[in-house]
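Sequence, please.
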C-alpha cells in the first residue's frame, strides 16, 4: 500500500476543501497547495496550509516530496507577508501522529499569529 494514501478510499476533509467540495475561507491557492482559515482558531490568526497531494503526515513524506515541502514553507512566508503579520511574527506547526494532536490524516501546516505565542507550547 502506498504510504501517502490513507487506507480508506474516501477523500480526506482537506482533499474535499482543495477540490472545492467543502467551502473554506481561502487566503491563497496555487497548483501545489491551498491555504485557508481554520474554523476552530487557536490564535487570532490561524491558517491551515495544505498540499493538494495527499501525504498522510510529515513522517511519511519521501525524498520525492522535497520540492513540495520546500514550496509549503516558502508559501507560509508569502502568506504571512500577504496577510500582514510577517513583521510581528508567526509560528508554523506541523503535527505528526495522534500524540502530537494530528486530527486529519493529511499533512498540513498550522500558521499561527496575531498575539504573543508562549514557549514551550501546550
Amino acid at each position: 500500500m502506498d504510504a501517502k494514501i490513507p487506507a480508506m478510499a474516501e477523500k480526506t476533509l482537506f482533499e474535499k476543501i482543495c477540490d472545492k467540495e467543502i467551502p473554506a475561507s481561502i487566503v491563497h491557492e496555487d497548483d501545489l497547495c491551498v491555504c485557508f482559515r481554520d474554523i476552530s482558531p487557536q490564535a487570532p490568526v490561524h491558517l491551515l496550509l495544505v498540499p493538494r497531494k495527499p501525504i498522510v503526515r510529515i513522517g511519511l513524506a519521501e525524498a520525492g516530496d522535497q520540492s513540495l515541502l520546500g514550496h509549503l514553507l516558502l508559501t507560509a512566508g508569502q502568506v504571512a507577508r500577504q496577510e500582514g503579520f510577517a513583521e510581528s511574527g508567526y509560528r508554523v506547526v506541523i503535527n505528526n501522529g495522534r500524540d502530537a494532536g494530528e486530527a486529519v490524516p493529511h499533512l498540513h501546516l498550522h500558521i499561527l499569529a496575531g498575539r504573543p505565542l508562549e514557549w514551550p507550547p501546550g
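The chain has one domain: 13-113.
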